[in-house]
Amino acid sequence: MSESSNLWGGRFSGSTNDAVAALSRSIDFDWRLAKYDILGTKAHILALKAAGYLSDAEQTRIDKALTELDKRVASGMFQAKPIDEDVHSALERGLIEMVGPELGGKVRAGRSRNDQIATLIRIYLLDQAGLIRDQVLDLIDVLATLAQEHMSAPMPGRTHFQHAQPVLLSHHLLAHAWPLVRDLERLSEWKARASFSPYGAGALAGTSLALDPNIVSQALGLTAPMANSMDATASRDVVAEFAFIGSLIAINLSRFAEEIIIWASAEFNYVKLADAFSTGSSIMPQKKNPDVAELARGKAGRIIGDLTGLLATLKGLPLSYNRDLQEDKEPVFDIVDNLSLLLPAFTGMVATLTFNTERMEELSSAGYSLATDVAEWLVKQKVPFRDAHEITGQLVSFAEAKNIELSDVTDVEFAAISKHLTPEVREVLTVAGSIKSRTGAGGTSVARVLDQISALRKLVPQGSR
Ligand code: ARG
Whose alpha carbon is nearest atom 3 of ligand 1? Predict the structure, then answer.
């Protein structure tokens, strides 16, 4: 049985069993919330002062001590001890060491660790969302810059991973930028929902001390206090939604990562990775491995695990606070830590890719990828699409049997397949002609890709963070 700085000793006669203390301790992971706990307490003492529970002088004294405590936490001069159950008990111990038990002991009035922790996780995540947003902006910026640099380079476009139709490399790169733009939209919509203050909810039922929760909410820069004290202390939807958005960011990186891994293979040879963003093998001297992309894929799996673990923690909980909720923190901390580790490395890897545009261009007409262009050309000659599809199918099967490209079929052979296949069809039998013709909204022609870049740049101006 050991000594502890816990906040609930009064009705207990003995001390807590060591195994139980070890099980309930959260200080090892919630210590990162210390600066937010201090912000919460600074806001709370304003409410205590307004309600007459602290004099001006007392509030000022406590506030000064908290400022000092914050500095000591940041410098490591004040540290959590094994006797501290959680960040709240450690910091109360710290405050009392500075202002004495009489004054320090007043601070806990009208709040509970339940409304405290529900507030802290929100303001912590709001801060982290800003950092993740900046890192995602960097990646979007790099993708837009690469698209500009490779504006008119063609590559094979795929469906079912088979050659489908030629597209521009710029178009493909921007197709990875837009989902990230939506992730940032999700993050800012989430911010609006997360910016409410649980403080004042107490343990579950609110407080009788006539504290004004607006004071705390305002001091913390939040929109308003939460409407229902039980919801305020028991809900973690805001945490789960953050985890979902983090998972989606990881998944979006992972999908691009998978392509980069394939593109870097000898068979594809579309890209070369910069030395600084790839790794070697301890046994095979020739190897250059796409580890950053592989770790992006791996991290996505782990982050999805964090999200599903959190959802499973929440699913059976009755109202209101249950200690299970202590398990909400490590999953989102893991997401924050891993995304902020991954994003700069991933962005650096993408920024330093060398694209083998010759190889991509060479392959972009392979697999009869211009067949749709022939069919659409026939439609423009007033052939019903059904017949156009059939005629083009016959053309492909003819070329395939002879093992030649569509453009190698002679005029006589064209005419033998269908009277509609006049020599003019050749104008669409080039990759450049095919891409140029895709002028419909969101299409892969240079004109439409330029539209996209300006739309994207409006949302994410160059160097916008
Ligand atoms: N450490 C707890 C958590 O993370 C907060 C403390 C509330 N504990 C309690 N026994 N009411 O949720």
Answer: 326
